[in-house]
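Table 4 source record.
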Amino acid sequence: MKKTLIVLVLTIMSISVNGSQSMFKALFMFNFAKYIEWPNMEQQSEFVIGVLGNDEIIPELNKLAGARKINNKKIVVKSVKTPAEGNGVHIFYVPNTKSNQIQKVVANFKGSPTLIVTDKPSLCKVGSHINYVTVDGKMKFEVNKQNIINHNLNVDPKLVALGISVQ
């Protein structure tokens, strides 16, 4: 009985920590959008965030989307199975579990005004624009300014200053 209770408590704590990480990642993503300028945004009716796969960040993004706007646009969150299904999104998130597809993602969005956000160390060096990392137990993010510029996006220098710059 005591072992069962300990396992149950540890499982609940694990779920809570993962949920909190997803919530923070979703909040970060919304804040990234404040520092990025997309071309022709005024002509679009929605701001679309694509997520590769069925990741735990989706419910968190949907909660935020229900309460907020990005660039005065309604936010739509799409779960997609392939990078090509994400064409036309403003932000494309690649969770750690799908990081093996980064080359397909980078090739699919080459030159398009899509901010690629990932969640595995070193992905900014292979095409990601922003990558979540943990440093000294704290969630931070890497930024590759040149990758962002190569996708026809304007990035506020404040975002680069807030993150860990990667070349």
